[in-house]
Amino acid sequence: MTSTFLPDKRSGPDVAPPPPAVASARGRARRRTLNWLTAVGFQVPALVLFIALVLLPMLFALYAAFFRWGGFGMPSDYTGADNFTRLFQDPVFLGDLWRCLVLVVLSLALQLPFALAMAVALNQRLRGRAVYRMLFFAPYVLSEAITGVLFGMVFAPDDGLADHVLGGIGLDGLGGEWFADPSYVMATLFLVMTWKYFGFHMMLYLAGLQSIPAELTEAALIDGANPWQRFRNVTLPLLAPTLRISVFLSVIGAIQLFDLVWVITQGGPDHHSETMAVTMFQYGFKRYQVGYASAISVVMFGICLVFALAYQRFVLRRDLEGATTTMRGAGK
Amino acid sequence: MGDPALSRRGFLAASVAAGLGVTALSGCGGDSDGGSSSGTTTIEWWNISTTEPTKTVWAGLAKKFEAQNPKVKVKIVQLENDAYKSKMTALTASGKLPDIFHTWGGGVLKQQVDAGLVEDLSDPTKPWADGLLPVARQPYLLDNKLYGIPFDIGMIGFWYNKALFKQAGITAPPTTWSGFLDAVRKLKAKGITPLALAGKEKWPGMYYWAYLAMRTAGVDALRKADDAKDFTGAGFVEAGQHLKDLVGLQPFQKGFLGAAYSTPTGQAAAVGNGKAAMELMGQWAPVVEADAGKGLGSDLGFFPFPAVEGGKGAITEVFGGGGGHALRKGAPQAAVDFLKFFVAESTDVELVKKTGVLPVVPAAESAISDPNTKAVQAQLKGATGFQLYLDQAYAPAVGQEVNDSVAALIAGSKSPEQVAQSITKTAKEEQ
């Protein structure tokens, strides 16, 4: 799979290698075997670790999802697809799916555009822009657990910083119970997520913006394009590959969201901020219904897999094949 | 320009994380060795006293026992609470337990007994175990046989701020549920938050429902309902209704649904800082109140959970639990000797004084100096019935479902009937 992306393969049959000398054919074959052995030698340790610690446990989770199993000994109480039928009748899990969708939509509609705007702003000549870049990126470096504890205190009803600040500027009415209010918990959570992650996407975009040759923007300027046109028709298309990667990471992140939620609300109040990963943790490690928790993890895996494959197939394909310059099949 | 490695890695990371949650569980093995070598007997003692001062005090007691019994060596294995629980589950599955091990009694101990792994202590401890505080032995009595010896006992009750009660004109702590609701109304009328509750953690809310169920349906109801896998009896629905009445008065602090228990903005701190008048909590409450908040000092008082008018339960029945030790089947006589040593009056006095546990030997109660601890002790001593903490009495899934459903009732999304049905459903799913 990897080799098809390599530029030398893409150059195609018309750039054929020079005809091999007959005398060295055997030596070449031996060298190829040696190369192959070297490659295998280097891969085996990683492969063994990957199979033992990733692949087998994943397959085991898939197996356990069809059992009622408390997590100790081997699963023996086979229940067929019961765990999955129960899962899709569980209002909490259906709520998880809905909340996941909400987070994905909010991330794509608000968080990423915000990150893009900040990136474009910080790509201008600006006094102290390095400081701003660092400041905005800093939250991403902070661990999720620390972020959770921090914002748990910031948004503490009455005593928290948020309510004090709002009170201080005469907006007491906007203060509330934040994470403790079932109606506002998701909005507050999204606020924290944006604070935490927009810097990362901003950095991605900045890197993308800096790889856009200044000549193109200048040419557009000479052609009389206004700032919006320059952004819309020059910057954005050339930034598209970065955007696509950023969207991918953002969606996968939303599907897997766990640590922030666990530290701040544990999914509460009354399941209003629960995510699939939190539900899985509750059943696996609190209730010891490991079979059911495995079923949740299998569904999560399935969602990630389908999304990742579909996204690669339909969205990232253009990037993987060399953007606009090379057509599919040219490498064959 | 695109970077295939990045996207693949992202994809892999996603897939791995999804599968990984379950991985960690399958990795728990078990190993244990004990037994004797020539001449001296070595007994292994597994406990969860990993914090000071208990750790040092217990190690000192083991030394003292060794000095009294030269042919016995005590090997201490200390594990942190949660690590201990999962290790013991693995050991139970493997079929071999340590000589002496920590137990909370109840359902987990019963599983180990049913698997034939625990020594019946009824006869070996015959004369001296009868002298222990009756309520402290309750968690380890299964089918009238004693499987464990307690070293600590405690209970849940209301901890209240005497100054705030006085301010609201409440002269004496309420002894009935309607009296309690009146007190809540009086406090509210004075602008005082009557109750602090850690809604985020769910288990503190469960205490209300469990106590109300004991008071309405009777002290045996919770155990019987678990055995019968049926919580839909009238008493349980009634308990939920009483709790709903309380919730209807909006007695809890602002934002209680998101509050934790022991954090600086949590339940214990709200009481410890005088922001709320009461909390329903175990005998450890004063320590946590002083730790997370300022603490109330002499303003802090204790009263038992009130009786419910017309209910089958009495105000003298307690909801609580403690800590004890059990022996593996076939443990050496030295292990029994050690248990006897551990509840000797001199040992218990030392434990009460130095580690802050409540006495399990009636004579050791003279060692208590704190008036609130004395009040709890008096309540325990006069207890006419006992219900073990639900997370120890019930299977984990059932215990969690009780917490979860009661939390939903308090948040207003489940009715008393739905709480009873949800718990019943989960209880039936477990076997």
TrEMBL record, chain A:
The chain crosses the membrane at residues 36-66, 101-122, 134-156, 184-207, 238-264, 290-311. It comes from Streptomyces diastatochromogenes. Residues 97-311 form the ABC transmembrane type-1 domain. The keyword Transmembrane applies. Keywords: Cell membrane, Membrane, Transmembrane, Transmembrane helix, Transport. It is found in: Cell membrane. Its main location: membrane. This is Sugar ABC transporter permease. Residues 1-23 are annotated as: Disordered. The lineage of its organism: Bacteria, Bacillati, Actinomycetota, Actinomycetes, Kitasatosporales. It comes from the Bacteria. It is a multi-pass membrane protein. Belongs to the binding-protein-dependent transport system permease family.
UniProtKB/TrEMBL annotation, chain B:
It comes from the Bacteria. SUPFAM superfamilies: Periplasmic binding protein-like II (SSF53850). PROSITE patterns: TAT (PS51318). InterPro entries: Bact_solute-bd_prot1, SBP, TAT_signal. This is ABC transporter substrate-binding protein. It comes from Streptomyces diastatochromogenes.
